[in-house]
């Protein structure tokens, strides 16, 4: 039974880890991938180092930007940084056309073999952020992509203000993609082994207990019982001084 508990714990545990994000149901790695599709998930956060134009106070709160040190208004920071922040609020991201069109282009370029419905679904849930409280994007994936009339002309290198649609930095995207791909693979294996242990610990006893209906001869049955069910798991333990302390060792049938 310990094995069973362990298996259940390992299954519950892996979905537990997602409590912080949007609620999802099923076994990680089977009914869905944590980061699915990886090409799109690698686009999420690829522009993290690019200041984004925001006007809401939440985007500038406690970010330590120049704006805050000049009396609390982002208006007072140097003019090139005016109202640009690397700590945009979810509401700002959800509304930012620059951000959404750049993300849409990234996904369009990287996810060439993924169904559009899947991309739209991912977009709706994750382009802004992983939290359930995050507002949905103001544009659908299709609508954001439609706003990009030609391939963006510049890459959003680290620190460059996002003031239009830009391309993702290739090396940052690739690093994210590899990490996510590896993560999915490991997570999938983890679930696979969890499920094997789970099914074995439930299924095997059932199958074994069905053996009693099999037409074994009496002699066979008692041999089987003797060998498998009543055998001590620790032979040498029996009849030794240990018994005096720990009592008889459990038999295989008990274990
Ligand atoms: C910058 O944001 C503030 C609010 O934080 C807003 O009042 C101001 O109009 C914004 N500046 C520009 C240029 O949009
Ligand atoms: C992409 O990022 C890497 C590492 O941060 C940097 O070395 C490279 O110059 C960047 N490329 C572009 C086109 O911005
Ligand atoms: C975006 O900002 C860069 C400087 O960071 C500037 O050279 C460029 O003209 C701006 N583009 C637009 C569309 O405002």
Automatic annotation (TrEMBL):
The chain crosses the membrane at residues 192-211. It comes from the Eukaryota. Residues 1-17 form the signal peptide. Keywords: Membrane, Signal, Transmembrane, Transmembrane helix. This is Uncharacterized protein. It comes from Exophiala bonariae.
